Amino acid sequence: MIINMSGGGAPGKIVTVHVTYGGTVGSGANVVCTNGKKTFNGITDSAGNAPFKLTKGIWTITADKNGSTSTVNAEVTGDCTVDISLFAATINVTYPAGYTCTATNGTTTLTAPDASGKWKCVVPNAGTWTLTAKDGSYSVSKSASITKNNQNTSVTIVAELVIFRNGAFQNGFSNNKIDSSHAAFSLADGNLVVKCGGVSWAINYSLCVKPNVDITPYSTLKFVASTGGGNYSMGAGDSSTDTNYTAKLSYSGKGYSKTTFNVDVGSVNKKQYIKFKGYEGPGSGAVITIYEIVLLR
Amino acid sequence: MQLYIDTDFKCHVSNPDGVYTSVETDFFDGKCQAYIEGYRFIPSGESWTRPDGEVFHGEMITPWKDWNELDEAQREYEREQYDAIEAELADAKAALELFGVNADE
Fold first, then answer.
1. Residues A230, A231, A237, A241: is their CA dihedral positive or negative?
2. Which of B27, B60, B65 is facing A264, going by the closest CB pair?
3. pLDDT higher at A226 or A195
4. What ipTM was assigned to the predicted interfaces of this complex?
5. Any chain B CB within 8 A of the CB of A271?
6. How far apart are CA A33 and CA A52, in angstroms?
7. Is A65 helix (H, G, I), strand (E, B) or coil?
């Protein structure tokens, strides 16, 4: 596109390049004006302006700042102002302190300046940006969708592997019942639920998550659940067809409303199946609900 | 199985100085000493704080040594058990053959 710029004034026209960046003043932007024969460089001032004295004719004017670039073709016929808008959006990233953090859209990769755990990441393009926090060989990612200039959004990266949360198995995991007892966990009310009410026989139920998962990067296996007053165990084990454990938490005789149960798995450095097993006596009326299953680093 | 835990909830198969706490569990049935003593046992009603500050409540049974080391020790123990049984069977067979009994019939 060629922009016609006209106005009065002497030969060698004053062309003021005015840059905005992310919808605000674009100070400190590099500006290059060229007509194929001559090239002029400048940097915008605190008002976002960079003045040039250019002869009449077609000029290609490019502004860039922090990787955000835009070019216009302007036909200079007199003193004029050329407006250039540079794209900039901000992703406020929170990540585990001590980790490195990067943002990429597949073409451009940006790196957090430190390992403080807080990064105001300014991206030069719209699109999907993947934020990755890394500690040695372990990494965890989250994405942010940028759709408009001057967008401001926040992303929090937690060093965890979510197995079940918000009513759904995540990251490729699914439910697999271990034994052939009367009841099994089913998705109800947005969670994993077993209802033991109204039956005259004892209820055994067991949950085994498939596939198995390498526990090595993680130190804690967390369940958030509400249970009845029967016998319960939860943890990690080798087999998907039994309820034996490598590491487990167990309790009996007390019901819990929505509670966090943690199992230390810091020394379980291998692939394991995540399991949950319970037993309730006849007609107990208990409703067992699992809200979350998460591996924490 | 009766075993013992110290003040850090680490398991022991014996209590020579009488300072450990006795606990009962079938979790370690068939396991060798090296395997058992690589575990922690936090009894019901008690809690243990991991060095990073995370608190865990009993009853929890979990390795404190790299489980792969414990597994290697257990496999070695089972190999020794197997070899011992093989040796006993060989002795028994030899004894029977002295009496003219063919142990394979």
1. negative
2. B60
3. A226
4. 0.86
5. no
6. 8
7. strand
